[in-house]
Amino acid sequence: MDPTPVASSEPRDHSVFFREVTLRVGQGTAIALEHLDPEEVLAEPVVHLAGSLGGRLPEGLAVRLRQTLRGRRTFDVPLEAPARGRFNGRLQLRNGLNEFCLQVVRPDGEILQERVFGISYKSSFREWNETIFIAFVLALIIRSLVVQAFWIPTGSMEPTLYGEKHDPQTKELTRSGDRILVNRFAYVADLSLDGRIPFAPRIWLAMPRRGDIIVFKFPDPDPNAPPRDFIKRVIGLPGDEVRIIDGTVFINGTPLKEPYIAEPPWQDYSTTVPSDSLFVMGDNRNNSADSRFWGPMPLANLKGQAVLIYSPLKRIRPIRSYPHPVLARAPSSSGS
Q1: Among 20, 227, 244, 329, which residue carries the largest CB count within 10 Å?
Q2: What is the 3-state secondary structure (H, E, C) of 205-271?
Q3: How far apart are the first and last CA of the chain?
Q4: pTM: predicted TM-score of the whole model, two decimal places
Q5: Which is the catalytic residue, given 120, 156, 291, 321?
Q6: Do you find a cis peptide bond into 219, omega within 30 degrees of 0?
Q7: What is the pLDDT along the chain (336 residues), one digit of tens a residue?
Q8: CB neighbour class for 335 (10 Å; exposed up to 12, middle 13-18, buried from 19)
Q9: Active-site hit among 120, 232, 288, 291
Q10: Cβ count within 10 A of residue 293
């Protein structure tokens, strides 16, 4: 990439003028100052400047090159052999905009002619830092808005998702819990980033389906309790009548086929799901703290849908929902 002139001015004294001024980056081709692209940002820190005057420099006059960094600090750049009508110099660039002023001056400091140009430079180290920073910010945004990793500590969702397992005698860890990815855009776009941005909205995109595996904030009755994330399977939607009779789950009187559970639940149960909530249960029905014990799960607590097991390696697989057929809303006597 090539440096760029910012501006140029006509000579104040036409008896002395710059005939040609070129810049060269590395071993590249020299480019005339007036032909440089103003949008270029150099990755090389050194630029070689060369030029010639319209004739031999009159006695008492001098060619001077001044460099200004970020519009503040100004210093002179050494030039070689200006008295023979030709001059050259080595420009050491700093990060940001480097402004240069090439001048022909009298001994008293009066400027007879000047050429002003600017060169932007960004070091590879700074570019890497900016790239890493941008990637970090994007990762935070993606994590907060699109996908988030979770770890399964317990066996409440077995056999679909494995939790940690310990030796009953030594208490040593014999199996690590699954690590999963959750699609946070499956149902709702939470622009508040879990409440970190006040007044930002939560935009609903879709309603969970029966059979989806979801992650949500546990509806703890204690407002001062630390937040906890739970993972369960959606069983009942708003308005559904949920009944468990002799190990079979009925939704609005229709029995569910549930090949994903560890074993049928041993306890009977009956409820109607509020209009702003879901009824959720773990697949390990007899080893799961779920809506049967702490009540319905408010839709406002929903975080996303579990979509992938990414660790351990032998467990890598998509997490599939088990969509149940559309069930009637009105309770049926067949489930009684």
Answers
A1: 244
A2: CCCCCCCCEEEEECCCCCCCCCCCEEEEEEEECCCCEEEEECCEEEECCEECCCCCCCCCCCCCEEE
A3: 78
A4: 0.59
A5: 156
A6: no
A7: 444 343 334 444 444 567 788 888 877 788 888 777 767 778 788 888 888 887 777 778 888 888 887 767 788 888 887 656 788 888 888 888 888 888 888 888 888 888 888 888 877 776 677 778 888 777 776 666 688 899 999 999 999 999 999 888 888 888 889 999 999 889 988 777 666 677 778 888 899 999 999 999 999 989 899 999 999 999 999 999 999 999 999 999 999 999 999 999 999 999 999 999 999 999 999 999 999 999 999 999 999 999 999 999 999 999 988 887 656 554 443 333
A8: middle
A9: 232
A10: 10
Residue 232 annotated among the catalytic residues of the structure: yes
Amino acid at 145: L
For residue 5 the two structure tokens come to 């002139």
On whether the CB atoms of residues 51 and 64 are closer than 8 A, the answer is no
